[in-house]
């Protein structure tokens, strides 16, 4: 049988954690053959609640779950981690400016980046879900100089999945028929879900839906979906965010389905005019823990303006955390 993989999860007592841990332990991330060891990080005040979740994990008697350890010291929890899912972050409190949010999270992600650098497995992969995800990933990456930059990625898969589901619904197709959809830029309201290359059962999406629907309905609905769920549920999206984290990490580790690509925020090499070093969402293919940006796509004027706007926001965030001395 396969060797167990050590998976660290931060913010494990949070809403996303409560869904994510059970999916990992069930084998949804690494497959039904690979045992898993969980290493869970929380702030001290959340450790008692996390102990309750660990009791529930035990009570599921998951065949693949080897052992679970919890703690609040990132160096201990990340020791030997082969995959680190950074979910925990400081939520935006009332009256908090975006700069305050970047600073509060900056402290968390500088510390966690350093701890990963010192304690994680040589082969570690790091996936950031906690918001602002792209810039948190940038901070962690820049504070982990011994870990190759390509090992860090941030989640735009929830946006990607939302866009796939919405296009499928609009065209009366199954989600399985939707391919080659791309999310570009920042995981924020400026993100750009791009249908220019998407196909539905082999047909170009642009022949199936109008430009007006794309502009007036599709793009804003995908971008505002989180707010709509918060409004309806009285709590933010958690199970779908956990599911997207699983999809992202599974595709990264095991490879994305052939004949398609997915969307991930990864460090730019300058592709498509995105400034080098920014962690921005691109269409990517993945295999064995590595990703590559899909090359050679034609970018329409319509797409160019939207990609540029979201990338400009990422540059502003990078400038802000540079100013704060976080990177
Ligand atoms: P939550 O507030 O329920 O849980 C966050 C947990 O992180 C809390 O238990 C908290 O104690 C913990 N935490 C805070 N600082 C920590 C630290 N330094 N070390 C370890 N743990 C720490 O939030 P929820 O709903 O689970 O969401 C988590 C994050 O994911 C948020 O930042 C949210 O904005 C983000 N998110 C990202 C999405 C994406 O698509 N990229 C989608 C949905 C949520």
Question: Any overview of this molecule?
Answer:
The strands form three sheets. A nine-stranded mixed beta sheet has the order 3-2-1-4-5-6-12-13-14, with helices on both faces. A three-stranded antiparallel beta sheet has the order 7-10-11. By secondary structure, it is an alpha/beta fold. The mean pLDDT is 97. It has helices spanning 15-25, 47-59, 74-77, 98-119, 133-142, 157-171, 211-233, 239-254, 301-323; strands spanning 5-10, 36-41, 65-71, 83-86, 125-128, 152-154, 178-179, 182-184, 192-194, 199-200, 203-204, 262-267, 279-287, 290-293. 42% of the residues lie in helices and 19% in strands. The protein folds into two domains: 5-154, NAD(P)-binding Rossmann-like Domain (Rossmann fold, 3-Layer(aba) Sandwich); 157-318, Lactate dehydrogenase/glycoside hydrolase, family 4, C-terminal (L-2-Hydroxyisocaproate Dehydrogenase, Chain A, domain 2). The protein binds 1,4-dihydronicotinamide adenine dinucleotide. Its EC number is 1.1.1.37. Catalyzes the reversible oxidation of malate to oxaloacetate. Belongs to the LDH/MDH superfamily. MDH type 2 family. Residues 6-148 form the Lactate/malate dehydrogenase N-terminal domain.
